[in-house]
Structures are given as structure tokens and as C-alpha cells.
Design a protein that fits this description.
66% of the residues lie in helices and 0% in strands. With 188 residues, the protein is mainly α. It has one domain: Alpha Horseshoe (Serine Threonine Protein Phosphatase 5, Tetratricopeptide repeat), CATH 1.25.40. α2 packs across α3 and α5 packs antiparallel against α6.
Length: 188
């Protein structure tokens, strides 16, 4: 069952901007995205953030990108949550805050987003925004590695050299028990 969950998550992210409902948001006009975004469509909100970040169809505007990603993230969009984590982590367009970065990485990671898991692992490894915890760092790196994040596997293996066998065993158990949970509302 866990493998099925990971496969589903991978398919959704490999699909790019295509939603689970078959809409290719990357081909929609800005006007169409605004219309959908006003109806609380998190995928449209996320894509408006991408458009403002890249200046595609709109004037490039970091503050508007942040705003749309924040709205999408509050509606449970895992990639928007990861993007906010990156912005806070690096102080890109917002004041740098490790605590806020972790907040958004954690929400993204909990939904199975490999990027969110990878960077949450670094937060625990380095004690940035959270207390340093090698067991939790290993868990998150391991989960990201399972989804094909090659660098996560390298960092996890390097981290293991500083851990006891019982810590590694505990981290692996936590990773096995992990079940992604979606924050995105379901539409029928």
C-alpha cells in the first residue's frame, strides 16, 4: 500500500501542471487562472505564483508570486508549501526565517513532496528552525530518496556515519510508518 501511495504521488508530480482532474494549467491564460483561483482552485493559485515568479504572461513580481503561493499553500498545495519554505529559508522576497521555512517544509513533506522532505531533512540535520535531530533528518532524507531524490540518498548515507545502529533502525522504522496525507480538498 505504501508503494502505491508513493507511485500516486510521483505520478501527480511528474504530470507537471496537469491537475488530477485532467486540466493542463500551464496552457491556461492568466485570465482563466484568475477565474479558477477566485474559486479557491489551489492548482490555479499555485500556477499564478509560478507565472509571477517567471514573468510569463504577467509582469515579473516576487511579492505577487509569494502572495499566490501563500494562498495555494493555505489551501493545501504541497509544491506551493515547498516554494514558501524555500523563500523563507533563503530570505528570497521575504525576511529570512528558519522557523517559517520549517513550517512550510513540514506541511509539504507530510503530503509526500520529495523536495519538502529533502529540505526538512536538512533542517533537522543542521538544527535550523528546529532542534538538531539526526533520527528525524534520516527519516526525511530516506523518504525523499525513495522517491528518487538522489542527493537525499547521499546525504542520508553520510549522516548515517554519525549515528548509532539503534538510531538508524528507529529512523528507518519512522520512515516505514510514514503515510502521506493530503491537505488538498477532494472534488467529486
Amino acid at each position: 500500500m505504501r508503494i502505491l501511495n508513493y507511485l500516486l504521488i510521483a505520478v501527480l508530480f511528474l504530470a507537471g501542471c496537469t491537475s488530477v482532474f485532467g486540466q493542463d494549467y500551464s496552457k491556461k491564460s492568466v485570465k482563466e487562472l484568475f477565474s479558477l483561483a477566485e474559486q479557491s482552485d489551489a492548482e490555479a493559485q499555485y500556477n499564478l505564483g509560478v507565472r509571477y515568479e517567471n514573468g510569463r504572461g504577467v509582469r515579473k513580481n516576487q511579492q505577487k508570486a509569494f502572495w499566490w503561493w501563500r494562498v495555494a499553500a493555505e489551501h493545501g498545495h504541497p509544491q506551493a508549501q515547498y516554494n514558501l519554505g524555500q523563500m523563507y529559508d533563503k530570505g528570497h522576497g521575504v525576511p529570512q526565517s528558519s522557523q517559517l521555512a520549517v513550517r512550510w517544509y513540514r506541511r509539504s513533506a507530510a503530503q509526500g513532496n520529495a523536495q519538502g522532505q529533502f529540505f526538512l531533512g536538512f533542517s533537522y540535520k543542521d538544527g535550523e528552525g528546529v532542534p538538531k535531530d539526526h533520527v528525524l533528518a534520516y527519516k526525511w532524507f530516506n523518504l525523499a530518496a525513495v522517491q528518487g531524490q538522489r542527493r537525499a540518498a547521499e546525504v542520508r548515507d553520510e549522516l548515517a556515519t554519525f549515528m548509532t545502529p539503534s538510531q538508524i533502525s528507529e529512523a528507518q522504522k519512522l520512515a516505514r510508518e510514514f503515510k502521506p496525507r493530503s491537505e488538498m480538498p477532494h472534488r467529486f
